[in-house]
């Protein structure tokens, strides 16, 4: 009696669990469809023969030539090159400068270092709109408006967010490592370059990738300071017109897909690090 | 491990020996090198943030059109603040911006639900995480171009609604629908971030709480409301604060998706700021920026206070 009762109970618990798992999968799949469907529709739209068949049956026309034609009709290539010109030096130099500062804040005991660090974090609280108008006039004074310099030069001086995370990472590296290297006659720069940089590699990779995504997708500053040398988001943003009927939406979609590819590739490669550092940023606040 | 600690011990003895000899000059260079290594960052902040910060503050007390150097603009005291704060269009854009913040709780509820489902240890959880995060990393301008086409009266969203005999709806042409479309797009784009943060929050909750409650006879619903939901408070708080800070600075989405319209329904604070800037009313634009900045500062200060209290508790 009791044993069959037990079995029945266990069975119903299992059934209950199975039912709730099916429910969970259904909702998650539905959510995934909502997240992915617009992007699939985008690919479908980019393969249409022209904008007049845009809203016809899905994936009915597969006109891949759009992805070649778009380079002739929309300045995608110029935007791509400009975005690279902004991203590469900014990230390479900016990361080096940030790492150097993070090392200094974490491992060199100079006077007022905590005060300076806290003040620097306070600066991060100033919203961009407060400083962007004076920046416009400073850049204008320097004849930089319309060039890519306002997007590159300020980033060469490092990234406070990155300094914050790298310093956090460095605080887990024992001081004795640095002390013993110093005793062996190494200078601080040698310690930084030979010992610390290799140790920082995983943290650096995650931070650089996040920064790259931010720079690549940024629209506000590039549009405000450098519209005459458009980066990719500015090129894509410029496709919005007051006459939607006349827009070559199929080509706009192809251009948009091209603008998304570099970030999606980087995301595919580094998705674990990106998701982990996002989670970390939420917890550290 | 052992081989590493041995030389360190030797070195410590060496340090002690050296300490008496040349302690002072070494100490000074140590400070100098410390400053040298942070110098580039310091110069960057001074030139690109601190200087513009005070420049902006000064410009709010002058009537400056941006065409002459700032020092030639007449000093007007608080007049520019008065002008902006009594301007109905400013308050309308403020209200429009606050209305879009209503997407924050909706997004939080949706993402909490998804995170609870992802936290059940099911297969493919990693795949779902990546899928939900794809819109987050996608270029915002590309996403806006896409949504504009999708929300067309002939577009796929109206096709879908037609199946339920609804529509066609002119999503981008009517103020109410335009606001809803904007909020919908923002939720869709940000859902991945909040879901992952909730998931991390859930994974930080020890199972022992739930097991203890289960032993006491609590059902799943009670466990969620009495244990899980309150323990997620830091995540709720973080999402509300970052949502407000980001939401108050909303610009690209309403500007490119709706051009601030229809009938100015999606003209946010920043769009209004750029309008003033474009009309060469630079001081008014700066005042708008400062009102926004003070608002963001207050929200951040509340967060700071809350966090420091939590750390002490």
Describe this structure in words.
The complex is a heterodimer of chains A (285) and B (313). Chain A is mainly α and 285 residues long. Chain A folds into two domains: 45 residues; 219 residues, MetI-like (MetI-like fold, Orthogonal Bundle), CATH 1.10.3720.10. Chain A has twelve helices and no strands. In chain A, α3 runs parallel beside α6. The radius of gyration of chain A is 26 Å and the shape is globular. Chain A starts with a helix and ends with a helix. By secondary structure, chain B is mostly helical. Chain B has a single domain, classed as Orthogonal Bundle (MetI-like fold). Chain B is 76% helix and 0% strand. The N terminus of chain B is likely disordered. Classes of the chains: A mainly alpha (285), B mainly alpha (313). Chains A and B meet through α1, α3, α4, α5 and α8 of A and α1, α2, α5, α6 and α7 of B.
Please give the structural blueprint.
The complex is a heterodimer of chains A (285) and B (313).
Chain A: H1 2-46, H2 66-73, H3 76-107, H4 113-123, H5 128-141, H6 149-156, H7 160-170, H8 175-183, H9 188-217, H10 220-225, H11 232-237, H12 249-284
Helix pairs in contact in A: 1-12, 2-12, 3-6, 3-7, 3-9, 7-9, 9-12
Chain B: H1 2-21, H2 23-59, H3 79-85, H4 88-100, H5 103-118, H6 125-137, H7 140-150, H8 156-163, H9 175-203, H10 207-215, H11 220-231, H12 233-248, H13 252-258, H14 269-278, H15 282-312
Helix pairs in contact in B: 3-15, 5-9, 6-9, 7-13, 9-12, 10-11, 12-15, 14-15
């Amino acid at each position: 009696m009791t044993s069959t009762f037990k079995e029945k109970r266990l069975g119903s618990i299992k059934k209950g669990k199975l039912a709730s798992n099916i429910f969970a999968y259904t909702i998650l799949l539905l959510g995934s469809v909502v997240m992915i469907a617009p992007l699939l529709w985008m690919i479908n739209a980019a393969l249409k023969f022209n904008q007049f068949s845009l809203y016809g049956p899905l994936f009915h026309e597969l006109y891949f030539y759009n992805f070649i034609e778009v380079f002739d009709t929309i300045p995608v290539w110029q935007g791509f090159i400009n975005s690279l010109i902004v991203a590469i030096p900014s990230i390479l130099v900016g990361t080096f400068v940030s790492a150097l500062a993070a090392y200094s804040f974490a491992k060199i005991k100079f006077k007022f270092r905590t005060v300076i660090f806290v003040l620097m974090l306070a600066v991060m609280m100033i919203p961009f709109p407060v400083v962007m108008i004076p920046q416009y006039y400073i850049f204008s004074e320097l004849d930089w408006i319309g060039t890519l310099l306002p997007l590159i030069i300020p980033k060469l001086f490092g990234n406070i967010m990155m300094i914050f995370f790298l310093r956090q990472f460095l605080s887990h590296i024992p001081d004795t490592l640095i002390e013993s290297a110093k005793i062996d006659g190494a200078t601080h720069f040698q310690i930084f370059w030979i010992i610390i940089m290799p140790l920082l590699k995983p943290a650096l990779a995650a931070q650089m990738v996040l920064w790259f995504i931010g720079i690549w997708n940024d629209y506000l500053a590039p549009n405000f300071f450098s519209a005459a040398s458009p980066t990719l988001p500015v090129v894509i943003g410029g496709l919005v017109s007051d006459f939607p009927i006349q827009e070559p939406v199929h080509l706009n979609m192809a251009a948009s897909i091209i603008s998304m590819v570099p970030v999606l590739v980087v995301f595919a490669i580094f998705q674990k690090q990106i998701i982990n550092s996002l989670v970390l940023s939420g917890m550290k606040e | 491990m052992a081989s590493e600690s041995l030389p360190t011990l030797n070195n410590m003895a060496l340090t002690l020996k050296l300490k008496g000899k040349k302690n002072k000059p070494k100490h000074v260079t140590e400070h100098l090198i410390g400053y040298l290594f942070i110098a580039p960052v310091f110069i960057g902040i001074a030139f690109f943030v601190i200087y513009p910060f005070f420049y902006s503050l000064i410009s709010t007390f002058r009537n400056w059109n941006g065409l002459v150097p700032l020092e030639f603009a007449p000093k007007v005291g608080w007049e520019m603040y008065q002008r902006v704060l009594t301007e109905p269009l400013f308050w309308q854009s403020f209200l429009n911006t606050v209305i879009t913040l209503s997407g924050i709780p909706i997004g939080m509820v949706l993402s909490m639900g998804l995170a609870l489902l992802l936290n059940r240890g099911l297969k493919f959880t990693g795949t779902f995480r990546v899928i939900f995060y794809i819109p987050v990393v996608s270029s915002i301008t590309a996403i806006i171009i896409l949504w504009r086409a999708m929300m067309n009266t002939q577009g796929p969203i109206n096709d879908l609604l037609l199946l339920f005999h609804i529509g066609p709806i002119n999503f981008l042409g009517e103020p109410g629908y335009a606001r809803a479309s904007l909020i919908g797009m923002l939720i869709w784009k940000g859902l991945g971030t909040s879901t992952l943060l909730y998931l991390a929050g859930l994974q930080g909750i020890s199972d022992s709480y739930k097991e203890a409650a289960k032993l006491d006879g609590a059902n799943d619903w009670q466990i969620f409301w009495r244990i899980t939901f309150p323990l997620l408070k830091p995540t709720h708080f973080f999402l509300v604060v970052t949502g407000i800070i980001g939401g108050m600075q909303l610009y690209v989405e309403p500007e490119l998706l709706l051009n601030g319209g229809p009938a100015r329904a999606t003209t946010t604070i920043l769009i209004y700021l750029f309008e003033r800037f474009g009309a060469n009313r630079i001081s008014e634009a700066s005042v708008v920026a400062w009102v926004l900045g003070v608002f963001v500062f207050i929200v951040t200060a509340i967060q700071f206070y809350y966090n420091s209290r939590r750390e002490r508790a």
